[in-house]
Amino acid sequence: MSRIVEQRLKDIQDYVANLNYSLKISEVRLINYYPKTHELEISKDLGEPEYLLTQIRCMSLIHPEDKPKVRLLLMRMDRKTNTSIAQRLHTILKDKEGRDVYLYLNMMPIKDKEGNITHYFGIFRNETEMTYTELKLKEETKKALEEEQLKNTFLLNMSHELRTPLNAVIGFAELFNTDHAVDHLC
């Protein structure tokens, strides 16, 4: 019996080690929000929490444009809303390149045996690279559309500018092809 227990314990330890490794290489963090204490726990693995943040500290890390969004999310969790949360957040944190960090948050309510929400559990991942790639793509698309419009305007103008004198040349050429007998002039 103890051999079976030892094997199960080893299997669980291996499973936890694999999860921790996956979290580490993917740069995903586990998060828990407790409405009762209004605190957010952030963990980089299944061990002890790495950070414990108050609502005020959470708000201080958010870019001003996203503060209303975060305020609403916190209010929903404090009211123990029975829905999942998925949101991209713009922070004031900077990455190695000095860019603002964007985090994608995905949480769900956790309930006790009676069905009451005890806290929210989820993950967040760094989406900075993806966000800046999307922004660059939008910028390049806008530039390409402007260049396309400029090209079309140029071609339309050139077509008009070439057609007008060309019509005169064609008209004169047609006159030369007609019969110009001297008899008609006298």
Descriptive overview:
The protein is 50% helix and 26% strand. It contains four helices and six strands. The chain has helices at 2-26, 55-60, 67-78, 128-177, and strands at 28-34, 39-43, 51-54, 85-94, 100-111, 117-126. Strands 3-2-1-6-5-4 form a six-stranded antiparallel beta sheet, sandwiched between helices. A hairpin with a 4-residue loop joins strand 1 (28-34) and strand 2. The longest helix is centred in the C-terminal third of the chain and has 50 residues, at 128-177. The model has no long low-confidence stretch (mean pLDDT 86).
Largest sheet, if any? 6 strands, antiparallel
Number of strands: 6
Envelope shape: elongated
Q: First CA to last CA: what distance?
A: 131 Å
Which range does the strand content fall in? 25-35%
The helix/strand class is: alpha+beta
Task: Report the average pLDDT across residues.
Answer: 86
Kindly report the spatial arrangement of strands forming the biggest sheet: 3-2-1-6-5-4
Element-by-element helix/strand order: HEEEHHEEEH
How many helical stretches?
4
Percent in helix = 40-55%
Low-confidence stretches: none
Q: Topology of this protein?
A:
Elements lengths: L1 H25 L1 E7 L4 E5 L7 E4 H6 L6 H12 L6 E10 L5 E12 L5 E10 L1 H50 L9
Antiparallel strand pairs: 1-2, 1-6, 2-3, 4-5, 5-6
Any descriptors?
single chain, 186 residues, alpha+beta, 4 helices, 50% helix, 26% strand, elongated
Give a quick summary of the entry.
This protein is α+β, with helices and mostly antiparallel strands and 186 residues long. Helices cover 50% and strands 26% of the residues. A hairpin with a 5-residue loop joins strand 4 and strand 5 (100-111).
